[in-house]
Each structure stands twice: as structure tokens, then as C-alpha cells.
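Researcher: We are triaging several targets before committing to wet-lab work. For this one, the compound of interest is nicotinamide-adenine-dinucleotide. I'm pasting the protein sequence and the ligand SMILES. What I need is the predicted three-dimensional arrangement of the protein with the ligand bound, expressed as C-alpha cells, so it can go straight into our comparison scripts without reformatting.
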Amino acid sequence: MPFEVTAPLQESSFSKPKVLIPEKVSPDGLALLKKSLEVHEKKGLTPEQLLQIVPEYDALIVRSETKVTAELLSAAKKLRVVARAGVGVDNVDVTTATQRGVIVVNSPSGNINAAAEHTIALMMATARNIGDACASIKDGKWERSRLTGVEVKGKTLAIIGLGKVGLTVARAAIGMGMTAVAMDPYANPSMAAAASVTLKTSLPELLEVADFLTIHTPLIASTKGMIGAAELAQMKPTARILNVARGGMIDEAALLEALENDKLAGAGIDVWTSEPPKPGDTASRLIAHPKVVATPHLGASTVEAQENVSIDVCEQVIAILAGELPRSAVNAPIILPEEFRTLQPFVSLVEKMGSLYTQLYSTPQRSASFRTTFDLTYEGALTTMKTTQPLFAALVKGLLTPISSQDGLNINVVNAELVAKERGILINESRSRENVEQKGYSSVVTLRARISRSSSMPREQQPKTVAGKATQEQVIQGFVSANIPYISRLDRFASNFVPDGTLLICRNFDSFGRIGFVGNRLGMAKVNINFMSVAPLGEEEEEVENGSGRKDREALMILGVDRPVEDEVVKSLIGDEGVLEASVVVL
Ligand SMILES: NC(=O)c1ccc[n+]([C@@H]2O[C@H](COP(=O)([O-])OP(=O)(O)OC[C@H]3O[C@@H](n4cnc5c(N)ncnc54)[C@H](O)[C@@H]3O)[C@@H](O)[C@H]2O)c1
Ligand SMILES: O=C(O)[C@H](O)COP(=O)(O)O
């Protein structure tokens, strides 16, 4: 099948690419889009309505309210880009987008100043009881002494996360006569020093000196719930806490308890664990608390910031739909969009090849005693790709998925090399000049696993052989046709099957009655067969002795089944009836 490179969508295309914008995005960027694209602004859609209309769109532009879920991305068959008009992409399922070849872009710097100014506004509001005072005077009261505040000059601002927003807040606070200290394990010490911010190495060190504590990290595993009851207890009772980053980093129940019991003087909160908060939940009780100044996620909501992020992401959408490189891609920073799209079916193929290898050929004893080196070879049109990083990442992911917990496995082009190194997986990639079109394919991928004794083991402890040889090699080969991956070689066998779902793979002598025997046993076990494929020995392979004195050729039988096959059923296939080996793999 020809290797297709999707043509960039041009202005002159018969129908213009369509962009869906289900949230309020500033018109400045939209004006740029409208020159060459069909732009549909549809606010207030329910998730169900969004799911229904998304298949017709090439691009989706969102802010923080739209949840770009795996379900939505699966329904969005034409989608090429999700653009986040802002910084945080925690409302976008980036992993699924990556798997589906959808580029996610954001605007990493368009709203920094807005978020920093909002932090300062909340700091001043908590210091001077602005929220409470405003409510009081509107209620017809005149409560001057109850509402006496504090000054920020001479106080210490403690910052968690000295990134773009954190540093901007620090500079403004220092300008108001405050001392700035920060805790950020990844901060650049010289940049901190240049901004007159003192870095602290631990959270307790930071908490104990804070008159105001402000959080400016992303919401990730290490920051989720980082300020709980224990941390609040380490702060001065006169301290105030601010959060203009993300809900979920401060334990809302612990914060409410601290405020109610005078363990903390106040809080200025813009972001909430659940947005919008539900009536009666902890966040709603916090919002109602007189010591809390609350805003509905307004950190980036300034005219200027919205103009910035809108222009930034709209320019990137235009670039991607024209086949060019975006400036701020979250999931594919080093690969051209068209290459990314073309590589996607091969990403799926290589991932399945890796998973097949682990499930069929690797055993725990083997991995402890032997070293496996993987050679990944690309032939045909694939060799013209500028980068094959996504294929490398897919192999690492495929090899590890069957032996990892799903939650912990987030392997992508950014972290694949690191993960491979950490797990001791050696992968050599190479491009072959062989003309595979003669074989009827435009591109072929071959995974060759070479197993040899681990040289790090003391010689006397090394097992004598690997299946009788000093080194052993297994080969899996595949290709893509009409975007569907196929396995064309499985070890010594010339196969042709789609690596998908639950497969029973039997090695048997290629003689009468084997298929009937296996089909019968599966039928008795109430396992339905969805498809069957026979893989004969490759032409160069020899016949072997079949146990009854005759020479016979071996073959593989690959059966797609509708459910996992029990171990005893699999074992019952092996024996006199000619099945030599049987394994179940899930792909
Ligand atoms: N409320 C809003 O409307 C609004 C607007 C803009 C940004 N934000 C949010 O503000 C946050 C900061 O944005 P940014 O642009 O400054 O991001 P950034 O990536 O520039 O900075 C984040 C900093 O956090 C640090 N960090 C990461 N993990 C940490 C940890 N465990 N402990 C301490 N520091 C850690 C990083 O090293 C980095 O320096 C993000 O969550 C962003 O989504 C909110
Ligand atoms: O991550 C961001 O950029 C901010 O939280 C802003 O979100 P918003 O676009 O929904 O205002």
C-alpha cells in the first residue's frame, strides 16, 4: 500500500477546515482564524452535545472549562489540534490526544502577568479584609475596628513554585517592600538570586517563615494535596494563604478547619478542587467564610491576557492546519505535524510489536540472567521521516505495558529514552535502504530481539545456554495498510494478522486435524473464535522431526478469541495432537 503523507489543508481546499470554540475566547485571535478557516463559536454546550458535533471539526480551541476527554477525542475523527487558550492543560487528556495523533498546543506565557497581578490583588485583599469589608458596608454596616488589616511591607512572602508566575509575583512583592523566599526543587538558583529571592530547600523551612504563602506550581502528583492539616499547623496563626494556580493543591477541608479555629488569619483563593464548586461542598463553605477572599478562577481573565492567549493559540492552529510546526506543542515538541500524523499508525504497530514480544518471548528468569538488545529497523518510506522518536517511545511503551501497572505508565517522546535507560532496555534504531515496495509494502518495521548472557553476572552463576545457544534471536515484523497494523512475521513464521484484542497463538505441526482439534477444545470451553490465521514457516526454514519418526513443517495458528482463555484450556491443547506451544496475548 502506498505510504500516504497527508497533504496540508490549504486555503484553496474545496471546504475550509472547521474550528470549534465552545468557550469564551477573545475575538482578536478568532479574526485571524476567520481569514482561512470556518470558525464556529458555540458556548454553553453540554458534554453530550459537544460529543455529537465534534466529529466534523479539524481543530478545537478551549479554555479550562471544556473537558477534552478520551471519549471526546475518540469521537473527533478529523481532529488535528486541541488548542488551550491559556497555560494549564489538566482539562485535556493529552495522552489520548497523543495516541490519536492530535497535537495539543497552549499559550505558556500569554497570561503570566494577569495571574501574578491577581495573586497580588488577593494578597492585598486578604491583608486589608477587602472582601469582608465590602460585604459589611453593602449590608449597611460601618465596622472600622473589626476590619483593621495588616501591611505587607516588611513581611515575608513564601512562594511554592518559582516558575513564570511565581517569579513575577516575587518581583512585584519585593517592589512593595516584602522579602521573598521560595521552595522549588527545579528552580534556577542564579535566576532566583538575580531576582533577590532566597531559595529554601524544604517545605517546613518555607512554611515557618511565611506571613503570606502563595502557590504557583502545576497540579501534578507531587503537588496534589501538598498543603494539608500538617503543613497548615507549621504556619504562623497570623499567616495568610493564596492560591491562583490550581484547586487540589490545598486540602480545602483542612484550610476551612484552620480558618475556623484561628490557626490561620485568612485565605485568597481563585481556583477550586471542583469548578464550579457544588452548593454545600467544602469549597462552597470556604467561599462563604468571612476570612476568605474568593474569586471564580479569574487569574487569567483580563482583556490583555485574553488577547495574548487568543492570538497565540489561533496562530498555532493556523500553522498546524497548514502543515507547519507550532511553537508551543505540549505533546510533540520536536516533530512536524504532518510527520506526527503519518507516523501514528506505525506508532500503534510498534507498540503492539513490543507488547507481543514481552507476552510471547520474555520470561522473568530470562530477564534476570540475560541481556536483551532490541534492533528496530525501518525500511521503505519510513526511512524518509525526519524523526522516529515516537516509534522508539512506542516500543518502550509496548515492551513495558504488559508488565506494568497502567496508572504509572505514561511514556511519550519526551520521557521514553529516560524510561528505557532506567529499565535497562537497549534499543538500536536503524534505517534500511532495501526497496520494500517490491514486497508490496511501502514501509516495513522489523523488531529483532537478541538475547545474550548478562555480562554483569559472575561467570559461574551464568546459565549454560539460552535454548541451547549462546545467543538467541527473535524477530517480529510488521507493516501498515489502510492505517491498520499487520504482523507479517512472528519469529520463524510468515504471518498476516491484525494484532488486536485477545489472541491465542499455537505452534503446531502443519498437518491435518490441528485446526479442528483446537477449534473443538475452544468450543467446549465456550470461547468464540472471531478470526483465524495460519502462519507457515518462512521459506528458508527447515522441516523438523515430528515425534513419530517423520519430518514435518511447523506452523503457527493465530486465533482471535472473544475472551481470555483459561490456563487449563490452554494447557489442554499441548500434547499428542500436535500443538507444541500455546500462549494467549492481549493486545
Ligand atoms: N488562575 C489562573 O487563571 C491561572 C493563570 C495562569 C496560570 N495558572 C496556573 O499557575 C501555575 C503556574 O503557572 P506558571 O506559568 O508559572 O508555570 P511554570 O511551569 O512556569 O512554573 C511552575 C513551577 O513549579 C515548579 N514546581 C513543580 N513541581 C514542584 C514542586 N513539587 N514543588 C515546588 N515547585 C514545583 C516548577 O519547577 C516550576 O518552576 C500553573 O498551575 C498554571 O496552570 C493559573
Ligand atoms: O491555566 C490557565 O491558563 C488559567 O488557569 C486560565 O484558565 P482560563 O482560560 O479558563 O481562564
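Researcher: Any quick observations?
Model: Residues 334-491 form a domain with the 60s Ribosomal Protein L30; Chain: A; fold (CATH 3.30.1330.90).
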